[in-house]
Design a protein that fits this description.
Low-confidence stretches: none
Helix content: 25-40%
Strand content: 15-25%
Number of strands: 11
CATH topology of the largest domain: Rossmann fold
CATH class of the largest domain: Alpha Beta
CATH architecture of the largest domain: 3-Layer(aba) Sandwich
Number of helices: 6
Largest sheet: 9 strands, mixed
Radius of gyration: 22 Å
Shape: globular
Mean pLDDT: 90
Number of domains: 2
CATH superfamily of the largest domain: HUPs
Length: 272
């Protein structure tokens, strides 16, 4: 049984985000890049399955981006350092922003890469990905992969249990005030939600070992079935949030400050 984890590289949420000159993508030059935190949940789950089940023979990570010489391979390196066996990196214009922001296009490219990998080395019993990408907040990737690969898809799982026979799984996910228990046959696609598994910190020895783990480079242009494919949606414009008005500090006696606060809320903020 083999496990595949999809890991996307995104800007660090603590970084200062800027829009690039085209106005259609985030400027990544000089910005710290990280593995998407939701995808990290899938990485941790994949590593736990690899470590905990003798029938899991391999855990693979797949990522996509413009090319191996860019920060886009950070997700691969993080996953390999956490314990994934090897990586597959799909590169090319089809998976480079702004085209990458089209989740259906990304799913089509990754599905083609998955089919090519499975034709060589056998089927993945379980494909894991994050419930959404934190840079776009788009959550279509998991369901789209399930549809394109003709496999059951479960979204936002907080618990995954694979049957002893490795033919089925049980997953739990949170609904509106309820907890849903879902069963599906394998192979399947599951997107991961917070609470599934706390991602481990990679140790220094494992970070060094990750540098020697194999990473296969796959050109999206060479994948079958993608001739003439293009994005179905387009980012027309990205805009930073409007700057906030400067904060006003009040001083004086409590009663005086309370009166002034009410006046400001009524006359300037116009909320009362």
């Amino acid at each position: 049984m083999r496990v595949l984890v999809i890991a996307r590289t995104v800007p660090d949420s603590r970084a200062t985000i800027r829009v690039n000159a085209s106005g259609g993508a985030i400027e990544t030059t000089g910005v710290a890049m990280i593995c998407d935190p939701f995808d990290e949940l899938g990485v941790e789950q994949g590593v736990r399955l690899r470590e905990g089940r003798p029938d899991v023979t391999e855990a693979v990570v797949m990522s996509a981006g413009p090319g191996p010489a860019t920060p886009q391979d950070q997700a691969l390196r993080a996953a390999l350092a956490m314990g994934i066996d090897r990586g597959i990196y799909v590169h090319g214009d089809l998976v480079t922003p702004p085209a990458r922001y089209d989740e259906l296009l990304l799913a089509r490219v990754l599905a083609a890469a998955i089919k090519a990998e499975e034709a060589k080395n056998g089927e993945f019993a379980l494909i894991l990905c994050g419930k959404a990408a934190i840079d776009t907040d788009a959550g279509e990737l998991g369901p789209a992969l399930g549809e394109l690969l003709n496999r059951p898809s479960i979204g936002a799982a907080t618990k995954i249990e694979i049957g002893a026979d490795a033919k089925s799984l049980k997953a739990t996910r949170r609904g509106d005030g309820v907890s849903e228990a879902i069963e599906a046959s394998l192979p399947a696609v599951v997107s991961c939600e917070k609470g599934l598994a706390e991602p481990r910190f990679a140790s220094l020895p494992n970070i060094m070992k990750a540098k020697k783990k194999p990473v296969e480079m796959v050109s999206a242009a060479d994948l079958p079935g993608l001739a003439g494919i293009k994005a179905t949606t387009k980012v027309v414009k990205l805009s930073p949030p409007a700057p906030r008005a400067p904060c006003k500090m009040l001083a004086g006696e409590p009663a005086q400050m309370a009166s002034e606060l009410v006046r400001l809320l009524r006359s300037e903020a116009k909320v009362i």
